[in-house]
């Protein structure tokens, strides 16, 4: 009797069980080696026309799969990895970032993951790439936004963040799907606030939205108007008015525009960047009647455009929010200055771009752009020979700035009173109390001839509004800005330094939100304009639903 027989008889283990165990340890291993080899060849073929970073990534890992197990084990076939189910969960939550789930086909992925991976090597390779492609699409959308833009046909001129497929895949292998994707969107407070606003807006939409305010003319404080109950409900839904202030609409004073409701509406006005006077007029009704669905689209649009910005803006920077008519200056990463600004109207749109603040000018000249000369000034000069003299303006033959001064009476101004005209000389306003640029101009030379400058309070309206004469930003109170080398206000050094240097290489960020575009994100992709949808307005930076 051989030793095997003696051993099985002694330990009472049937020989056929021992043989099965031996085969289980040998045959699957051979099958798995063959399966891995077949998968490797199939995946190489599957990736043959894919981007080089993806091909190199899989080559470096020996074409081992990310999303499925090839090893059979004792009790069954190949299965999906935990990463695959994490990816499905990540896609399900993409809409919390304003990204449409359908873009990543979650239903097809869910169906695929409900069954074991296919047996054929080519089908497995196709499944592996299908999941990788979804992950990379989601990672790219988080990293730089899902829309492409063309600076030649849009007002967006800020370099988009780059996306590295190799880096995204490496992050996946090191951190897992959830953590890798969490690090890719903007980490700013504004992005977080907008994300936090979405659930509240969704609840409002699911509950039927908010009422519209049907009214004509003005509703003044202490007026009685049948639209007041709807206004009160609108303000309660938005959170501007406490729910305890709700009234019985049949009550005698239900239509009274009382002080508590006025105060709540003033809060609404301030949040929306309109004059906080408590009076309900056309502009206020337009803001009130913006639907909750439109507000949600607006939040999603702003989430998208925040993804367009570089992830690092610089600790020392100036940011102008075009839509909100506000400027904020940051030093060492902290907002140290905030003020209103005036920007171009829709027909003179201010582009979104970034540049470096290089210097300031004290008591600057204003060189009038050709568009303003031909569209606004030339007809007035033709009718009024004293127009230029009254405004302390001169005409120079050409550049440089010491060129010959021309008598404006020798110019046929009527010939330049059309939009397609090109004024051949240089029209400038000399420094002085009436200079359009005020006493100071902050310069970050750029292709758009945009700069920051002072606007005299006496010439400003009560609130920031578009100014058709210039697309330049008008810095209402630049004297509060302080230099990096001294705490002395600019007003204190203006007389001592004819051209003081501001903080060298401080980024002057011209920020993205703005009003007006010719299409909706629900019907057209970005390309013509920098916005995702046409509802950017002065509430664009507010994360609290309107």
Characterization of the model:
The chain is 37% helix and 11% strand. The chain is α+β, with helices and mostly antiparallel strands and 546 residues long. The strands form 2 sheets. A 10-stranded mixed sheet has the order 1-5-14-2-3-4-13-12-11-6, with no helix packed on it. The protein has a 4-stranded antiparallel sheet with strand order 7-10-8-9. A hairpin with an 8-residue loop joins strand 11 and strand 12. Helix 2 packs across helix 6, helix 3 crosses helix 7 and helix 4 packs antiparallel against helix 5. The N terminus and C terminus are likely disordered.
Topology (SSEs and partners):
Elements: H1 3-11, H2 15-46, H3 52-60, H4 82-92, H5 106-114, H6 121-144, E1 156-157, H7 165-182, H8 189-206, H9 228-238, H10 259-271, H11 282-288, H12 292-308, E2 317-321, E3 326-331, E4 334-342, E5 352-357, E6 359-362, E7 366-367, H13 370-383, H14 387-390, E8 393-396, E9 405-406, E10 426-429, E11 440-443, E12 452-454, E13 473-475, H15 490-494, E14 506-510
Parallel strand pairs: 1-5, 2-14, 12-13
Antiparallel strand pairs: 2-3, 3-4, 4-13, 5-14, 6-11, 7-10, 8-9, 8-10, 11-12
Helix pairs in contact: 2-6, 3-7, 4-5, 4-7, 6-7, 8-12
Strand content: 5-15%
Low-confidence stretches: 1-5, 16-27, 457-546
Helix- and strand-based class?
A: alpha+beta
Helical percentage: 25-40%
Instruction: Please tally the β strands and state the result.
Output: 14
State Rg. 33 Å
Principal-axes shape call: flat
Task: Give the termini distance in whole angstroms.
Answer: 91 Å
């Amino acid at each position: 009797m051989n030793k095997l027989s003696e051993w099985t008889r002694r330990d009472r283990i049937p020989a056929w069980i021992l043989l099965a165990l031996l085969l289980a340890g040998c045959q699957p291993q051979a099958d798995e080696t063959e399966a891995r080899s077949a998968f490797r060849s199939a995946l190489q073929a599957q990736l043959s026309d894919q981007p080089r970073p993806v091909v190199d990534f899989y080559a470096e890992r020996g074409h081992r799969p990310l999303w499925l197990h090839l090893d059979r084990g004792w009790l069954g076939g190949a299965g999906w990895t935990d990463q695959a189910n994490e990816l499905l969960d990540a896609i399900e939550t993409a809409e919390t970032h304003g990204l449409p789930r359908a873009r990543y086909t979650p239903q097809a992925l869910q169906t695929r993951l409900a069954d074991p991976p296919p047996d054929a090597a080519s089908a497995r390779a196709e499944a592996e790439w299908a999941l990788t492609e979804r992950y990379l699409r989601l990672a790219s959308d988080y990293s730089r936004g899902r829309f492409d833009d063309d600076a030649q046909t849009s007002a967006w001129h800020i370099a988009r963040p780059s996306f590295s497929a190799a880096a995204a895949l490496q992050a996946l292998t090191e951190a897992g799907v959830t953590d890798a994707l969490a690090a890719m969107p903007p980490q700013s407070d504004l992005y977080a606030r907008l994300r936090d606003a979405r659930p509240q807006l969704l609840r409002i939409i699911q509950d039927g939205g908010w009422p519209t305010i049907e009214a004509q003319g003005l509703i003044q404080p202490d007026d009685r108007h049948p639209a007041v109950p709807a206004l009160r409900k609108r303000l309660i839904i938005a959170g501007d008015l406490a729910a305890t202030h709700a009234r019985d609409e049949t009550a005698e004073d239900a239509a009274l525009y009382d002080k508590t409701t006025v105060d709540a509406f003033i809060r609404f006005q301030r949040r929306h960047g309109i004059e906080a006077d408590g009076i309900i007029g056309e502009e206020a009704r337009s803001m009130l009647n913006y639907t909750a669905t439109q507000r949600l689209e607006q939040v999603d649009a702003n989430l998208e455009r925040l993804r367009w910005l570089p992830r690092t803006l610089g600790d020392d920077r100036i940011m102008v929010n075009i839509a909100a008519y506000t400027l904020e200056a940051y030093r060492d990463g902290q907002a140290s200055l905030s003020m209103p600004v005036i920007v171009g109207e829709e027909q003179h749109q201010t582009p979104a771009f970034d540049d470096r603040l290089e210097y300031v000018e004290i008591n600057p000249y204003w060189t009038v752009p050709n568009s303003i000369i031909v569209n606004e000034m030339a007809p007035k000069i033709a009718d009024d020979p004293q127009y230029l003299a009254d405004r302390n303006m001169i005409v120079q033959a050409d550049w440089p700035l010491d060129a010959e001064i021309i008598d404006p009476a020798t110019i046929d101004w009527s010939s330049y009173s059309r939009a397609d005209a090109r004024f051949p000389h240089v029209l400038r306003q000399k420094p002085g109390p009436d200079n359009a640029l005020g006493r100071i101009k902050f310069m970050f030379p750029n292709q758009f001839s945009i700069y920051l400058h002072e606007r005299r309070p006496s010439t400003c309206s009560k609130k920031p509004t578009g100014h058709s004469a210039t697309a330049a930003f008008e810095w209402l109170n630049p004297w509060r800005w302080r230099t990096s080398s001294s705490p002395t206000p600019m007003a204190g050094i203006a007389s001592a330094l004819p051209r003081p240097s501001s903080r060298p290489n401080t980024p002057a960020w011209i920020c993205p939100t703005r009003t007006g575009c010719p299409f909706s994100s629900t019907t057209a992709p970005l390309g013509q304009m920098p916005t995702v949808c046409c509802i950017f307005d002065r509430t664009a930076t507010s994360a609290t639903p309107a």
